[in-house]
Amino acid sequence: MEVLIMAGQLILGLSILVGLHELGHLLAAKAFGMRVEQYFIGFPPKIWSTKRGETEYGVGAIPLGGFVKISGMIDESLDTEQMKAEPKPYEFRAKPAWQRLIVMLGGIIVNVIVGIMIFVFMTYKNGNTYIAAEDAKYGIVAGKLAQEIGLRTGDKIVKINGKPYERFNDITSTDVLLGTNSYYTIERNGQQEDIYIPNNLVDKLADRKSAGEFIDIAQPFKVGELVPDQPAAKAGLREGDVITSVNGKPIRFYHEFVESVKPYPNKPLTLGINRNGQSLTLNVTTTETGTIGFYPKGLLKYTTQEYTFGEALVVGTERAFQVVFDNIKGFGKIFRGEVSASKALSGPIGIAQNLFGGIWVWDRFWTVTGLLSMALAFMNALPIPALDGGHATILMYEIVSGRKPSDRFLEAAQRVGMVILLGLMAFAIFNDVFKAVF
């Protein structure tokens, strides 16, 4: 079921984004009097189509993209027969370069607008809930990767890059992890010291096997929602219970509970419980994965910052463009050799697993869709032949130089671009499968 939910979210999200992206090209082309022959969401073979006027609208069986076919344009179809005849007034090639440039940028512009709208709406709807730095009074939980750079559980991070910070999640923000020569100032046993973050740390964090092995917050907790038919519910644990010990070992923080339970899959354990001031003992047997089946409810103070629509417009726009800046930083680290492409790049399988997840949560779905919309705009803007950015680069050359590249050059560039894109797609899918299996 989880696989179907992940696939469903991915297909719906990509269909929305690709459909709107191609709609941007279509509307711009029609606005300048160009003939649009086809508008498809998904790649062939064709599942369904209908013709309205001069345009065939349809859905393809492969839901990983889409296309708009504009008369007189050398595109992924590589239909060059029409290019041998004299340009007709309604063809792409017959229009001024500035109009063709707007048509090529239409999809990117729509994706940016959609991404901003989603981020603004989610910001206005949900605000920003976080634990303030001063409320993280018990310090951090240092995972394996954090310990490798010198952090320890119980450390209090007081500064980031020499400056005080506002929110606990600023510690693992992209500005820090994708930055260069970042460092934490920690307080340990009343003394302060600086802990430097290796520039290639994000390469290790990108490894699925290292997920959750960096920094978490030391969090007192009580039992939250119980998972039906799991050991906790069967043993009589109730929502609101406070677990005080496991097999006689005192427990205060959630990470201590996990460390006491996870190493003992399929084992009987004795839990000490505080229920409304009354001390109880429960016997429970863990699952095969070393869990008992409940969601913790943290007891630290959470702060919720709400926004007016005007404020959400500003904050949401900043969050949307932060996705683009993060992509630029990420590619910079790849080119500098600080991050391996095999860990940093994901195809459709990786996106479904790592971003959407196996539970359908609408807030998360729309947040991820907004993120993908901005990422799609960024990727399409790259000056690679066959991408919108490649076409736009050639058109800007034409506008500046006053010389139009030959059809032969455009055909060759399209072929090269398609080889590059197909190679990248094959690499991303193979990489997803390899990471999922190994």
Question: What features would you describe in this structure?
Answer:
The model has no long low-confidence stretch (mean pLDDT 90). Helix 1 (2-31) packs across helix 11, helix 2 crosses helix 8 (309-335) and helix 8 (309-335) packs across helix 11. The strands form six sheets. Strands 11-10-12-13 form a four-stranded antiparallel β-sheet. A three-stranded antiparallel β-sheet has the order 5-6-7, with no helix packed on it. It has a two-stranded antiparallel sheet with strand order 1-2. The protein is elongated. With 438 residues, the protein is an alpha+beta fold. It has three domains: 1-124 and 366-437, no CATH class; 133-217, Roll (Pdz3 Domain), CATH 2.30.42; 221-299, PDZ domain (Pdz3 Domain). Strand 12 and strand 13 form a beta hairpin. The protein is built from 13 helices and 15 strands. It holds the Pfam family Peptidase_M50. One of its GO terms (biological process) is proteolysis. Residues 223-288 form the PDZ domain. It is an enzyme of class 3 (hydrolase).
Q: How is the biggest beta sheet arranged?
A: 4 strands, antiparallel
The amount of beta strand, in percent, is 15-25%
Give the spatial strand order of the biggest sheet.
11-10-12-13
Rg to the nearest angstrom? 27 Å
The topology string of helices and strands comes to: HEEHEEHEHEEHEEHEEHEEEEHHHHHH
Helical proportion?
A: 40-55%
Low-confidence stretches: none
Q: Could you say which structural class the secondary elements and strand pairing correspond to?
A: alpha+beta
Number of domains: 3
> What is the residue-mean pLDDT, rounded to a whole number?
90
* Distance, first to last CA: 22 Å
Would you report the number of β strands?
15
Shape: elongated
* Total number of helices: 13
